[in-house]
Amino acid sequence: MASNRKKKERKPGRRKPCKFCMDHVAVIDYKDDKRLRKFMTDRGKIAARRITGTCARHQRQLAIAIKRARHLALVPFVREHYR
Amino acid sequence: MRKYEFVLILEPTLDDAAVAEGLEKYCNLVREQGGEISQQENWGRRKFAYDIRKKSEGSYLYIRFRGEKKVVDEINRVLRFDERVLRTLIVLDEDAEARNAEAQRREGRRPADTSAPGDSTEPLQAEV
Fold it and tell me: Is residue B110 one of the residues assigned to a domain?
């Protein structure tokens, strides 16, 4: 993959910002399936914090919101055959 | 008294009138049990993310109310006999929209750069 593209110097310890904190989200809404999908893998799993940069507090809320949304069939459960 | 959110999903075979009637039915049930409704909404027909009882879509109804726990118990009892209902969810209402709007208003007054420390290069803020 484009190795000549400027390699970004990764400063150690640079943390990704939590998107929910940046947007000042107080309560993660399970009804907002479009937003929840952005924090799920294409298999339908809940994406790890190290991937998304979500802070601990929001990750806990997010997990609950995604599970509620799954119950209402707004977002999928984990599937083997997702293609 | 607590605040609740109540979502129910009805069969896709029902016509608009039947869906509206279903919404009325559960609103009335809440009122009969001494609850007060603060919001009732018909989200309309939506595709499911996965099939429920071999169906790929359904009509979503949303009711927001205040009441004692017995209201919830009664709703759950009635739901057991209602075959037109595919799925339900009753959770404590955390006032998501209102509290988020409030948080934004509060934070919005501060200068824009308060958001994330060490995020000078790319603001990643996109549309999330």
Answer: no
